[in-house]
Amino acid sequence: MENKEKKQSRRKFFFKTATAALGTIGAVGIVTQSCKEPVEEGETVSLLSPDGTLVEVDKANISMAKMPAQVKEARAGIPNKKFVMVIDLARCRNARKCVTNCQKMHDLEPGDEWIKVFLMQDSNDTAPYWFPKPCFHCNQPPCVKVCPVGATYKRTDGLVLVDNERCIGCKFCMTACPYSSRVFQWKDPVHESQADHDYSPETSVPHQVGTVGKCDFCPDMARMGKLPTCVTGCPNGVIFFGDKNEDIVTNGTESFRFSELVYERAGYHFMAELGTEPNVYYLPPVDRLFDYETGFKTLTSEQKEFYEKSIVKKH
Amino acid sequence: MDLDQKSTRTLNYFVPQMVTISKSGILQLSVLVLFILGGFYALYIQIVDGHIVTGMRDNVVWGLYIANFIFFIGISYAGALISGILHLLRVEWRHPIIRIAEIITIISTIIGPAYILLCMGRLDRLHHLALYGRIQSPIIWDVLAISTYLIGSIIFLYLATIRDLAALRDYPFKSKWRHTLYKFFAVNFNGNSKQNRYLERGLDIMSAIIIPLAVLVHSVLAWIFGMTLRPGWHSTIFAPYFVVAAVFSGTGVLIIALWVFRKYYHLESYITKIHFNYLGIILMILGALYAYFTFSEYLTSWYGSETWEMEVLYKLFDPNGYWWWFFFAAIVGVVVPILVILIPQFRSINSITAVSVIAVFALWVKRYLIIIPTLETPLLPLQDMRPEYIHYTPTAIEWLLTFAGVAMFCFLFFLFSKFLPIVSVVKGEEGTNYAELRKTVMQRIIKRT
User: What residue spans define the domains of chain A?
Assistant: First the structure.
């Protein structure tokens, strides 16, 4: 009896590690493929640069210019994909690298966060935990329902995106979103690195004054076979990203079968009772890697005080 | 058009006021224009610098503008419901007040939606509503309902004014342009029985249409809030609650307007204590109805004690939060008007007007309290280090535009009073019509037997 149980668990262990290993190989493959080292060929080509000067470039270094997806493509979605995110709350220690990486990639102002890290406590008797929250890309998105011009829309791959060229700035989606996911561009945006990009709903930059922005799950990265910047930025591998159709999620170093991960680790939807059917799953903060107080290390004393004050609801 | 003696007297009384303007009138007008210009200046700054100049931020995305929007659409009820219902019921005392009520409707239905435009981040993309409009969005419902309502109200006012326009056309004005204007708008009306019959029928149809339309407009407005998953908003009671609040404030504004015009144009012989008494009683009944809805709304959410609902309630009942505003809006603004009008000894023209002012102010505050505390209470904790993202404070720009709206309201009212007598001059004959109809029918029956 005891033996049998042992055997079973051993078999289970084998399968688990095997799938994890296979997944990791796959993920590493994706990453290595996309960052191949260019080889010097010695042959050069003359090219006209945008400012009108003739330049010589090594043939090996030439690649097609990165073109953001056209509006039509960006409205349809990436075929045969169903993007999903799993966030393991047991691993988060508020390193805030997801936040800063996202802000850097999307040219966001310091206070504007498309992924936020909240300090949550479910009841006075339970321990607080850090709660990273991107846009949930709901399957029943209240924001899409209320948009008067279809500027925010649902795609076949599950993403909810915003077309800043169509948005009229009525902010109805911001009141409709129960998860505070949306950020308004209150003033003229400060263009930095991405200023020369053509706008696409998939890159979400450059921003436009008077329109709404939010987490887009980085579909431009997905098209290049890369992971969203919050996933790769996280030092603790909190955030897993993947495809529901392939049933795999990865944080860049570990991969899991999505269905098994959420099944075995009791994955749940945040505020499922609202009926929005999010595409972001949370794994409850059990057997934590860090005490929640480690999360205060990166904060100033002022911030720490603020968090502690705002966490417990005093009614 | 032949006028009876009384109508001629009324017309002779009003025309001098329409063509002349006193020195103090010019002064008052220039103050109004100053406020309106201030509004345009604020609008210019808001367009150039973006919405950063307002107090609105990512949590409180709607502020004063939307409160003003609901307020103005609310007072537009004065004309639609009051004059519509009074017309259908053939209430005799309605004649001197019905024109003012209808003008309130049209002006506020023009000014109200302007605040939605002010709240829009991209005014330059307004045409997207036509290009990409989605019928699933309550905003589109609102656009359709309000524009229909505005057109309906204009037709209603126009039909009710044709008789006066015809009288004005036949009046020997000195200026030629006035004559051309009235001639154009009077569309050859000469008051023969056929025209009168059609006009009466048109008025009946329009007032029957305008009543459900008005109810619909304010329901749709309430649904913009009611459809979202927000504490304090997501409530089935919201549509009727908004409708009742709207008629309540609309009646209040109507009483104030009557008082002002009575003083300003010396209409003591036209607008009498009877009008104030009757409208006061309507105000009192609506106030009681509104109090009942308020009580029901807050009792339900308090008794149920859902966490999010309670958070909004705690803000409303917190003496350091919104309590005093809430106390004024939900208790003082209702109890005082009801008590003053209920007790006959307290009832006078001035006291009824004073409580109307209180009621109208309270209703404006109530609209503010519907929007801001809810938006300050998102479902996720407000962990933002920027204080302006947590608590909303309206900026000078928003106040300037608010005052400009009120000034615009008065200014347009003034303009109207220069083109039309503020009290309807020529009375219809619907009262005698029915009596005569009955008489002829009876005579026929008698003949047959």
Answer: 71-310
